[in-house]
Amino acid sequence: MMKNTQLLPVRLYWFTDPFCSTCWAFSPYLHKLELEFGHLLTIEYKMGGLLESWKTFRDNTGYVKGPGDLVVIWNKLGQQSGMSMDGDIWSEMPPDSSYPSSLAYHAVKKLAPEKARKYFRLLREELFLRKEDISSVTVQTRLAESLGIASDEFTNELNSQDNLDRFKADVRLKIKYGIDSLPCIIILDQKDQVIKIPIEDGYEQVVLELKKIFTIDSPKTHPQTIEGLLENYGLLSTKEVAVLLNRQEDLVFSELQNKLSKGEIESESYKYATFWKTVKKEKKLIPQPKQLTAIIGGGIAGLSLAIQLKKQGIRIKVYERASEFKNQGLGFLIMSNGFEIFRQMGLERQFLQKANAIQEVTLLNKDGRILENKKIDLCFGISRRNCITILRNELDPKDICYGSEINSITITDSLNQKLSFPDDSIPEPDLIIGCDGSHSKMRESLFPNSVPFQVEEKEIVCLIRDEELAKNMGHTFMKVVCPEMGFNMGMVPSGHGEVIWFIQINNSIWHCNDTTSGEMANIIKEISKSLPTLFRRAINRSDFRQTFLWEMYDMDLMPSFHKGRTLLIGDSAHPLLSFTSQGAGAALEDAACLSNLLLQNPDPKNLDELYSEFYRLRKGSIQNYIEGGRVLLDQFLNPKNYTHTHLPFLNYATK
Q: What is the model's pTM?
């Protein structure tokens, strides 16, 4: 029960910085603090001056020496916190200083104090979610204008001496209180006594101190609804909604998905989390068109896109060239980015039941000596059969037309394109999405000059059932690296007693041009003579009639993924070398990105703008995948030029 009525003098300083990843991860609890104690005290944001420049930056922990060190740190924290943050900005176009965005916050605080916190949130959303350089005056001004602040007023205040002085006063205050890491909370009680709470002490410690100050048993509770929270805060992650509702995150996510399917709220998908917002009023007044989307290809990209579009009320039809669903005996790795898409689709449980978590990567030489061993997070081995089954089971059988291989696509002008199938009864779609694989007929018709080129590396792949071998491997991806002899061999336990193995061969050495099982068997047996016992066991347990020879293809990033009403995604748009382990992940990312754009922009009249935005959002990641694959290919074909084995996918999974 409250005993002290002298509450107004109590102040809480939240020392933060626009670039502070831990501050961003703490966002759910900062909202909760404002809700539960905002009526009792004054909360003030203080800028901590985290990064003046990389030339002068010194990290007390010693973990960060330059921007590249933040890639893994941000990605890992983005996964763990439920707030998402894309660390790739620090390898692609790293900002040099957090001071400009701190000054931008102070400028808005001066011009419109009631909008300052909202502006600070918008700055961080641009940085952590969208990889925007918020030190850019253009970005800062755009966000200020979105809150109704005139650009000239903002710019004048931003560059004023008074604005700089206010920021410097925050930094001096941080020094005064002996704060050496962000975020940090300083509470000044009724007697002006200082209580310092580093955030590593946890939100519970903050609540405990405030309960002592106000002599209350528990903070004030405010009944909240999902709609009310989104209306009040704008864009919230699932984690934020769950914390503010005091409910389990998985249950909240299911409720949010249900509301999304009914058109009651909207979603935005980012690298490691889904964020939610209210439906724009104009969209409530204008019914969303139920356009027909033809999806050409029933693989990972096509099926995951179909699931997400169907939840939005968009009519879909998947055209798959295979005459029926086949239990193909191949598989792949799914990294954290791909797993997040399964989670967003509400298929996390089904995925985890079918996949096997990979927690460790071990590289060996041909004699079995360990070259490198790494612990990894959120990486999974799964057979293609199981992955496709998970996705296919989410759709009505009538949604997929098997035996429908596209004959051609006829272009009459930029918007009028006609698909030709053996079955002439195909209705004319409003949108056409090409997901027909690396040897795409869609790409061949629309972009005849964009042709994949074959590389010297080939792969022999097989899936075996060996419960004892799978048990011995547990959760470890093992790979023998022997490029000097023209081969590598990897084994991935994919769950349920199955193991996927693959042999990468330098074809200039092995000359494997015959795809018959007999020819491949001869090469496999010859290579097996140089392998450790565990790898020879996998080969000896294999049916060579069930092995597959993959010819590897590479292709430069196309200048566009669309023409008219047709957009290419997945391998159709950007076939990736298998070295990257991102073929499936990139396809899932493409589908989620396009689905989110169509949810926000349902009018087919704006397709060119929408498709161009899709390309803008995806080209950076795709270019990184392409370049990473080429580094690994060159390392394999020209091992004398390298002293260390690179595994690019570890950027997405390393602990």
A: 0.58
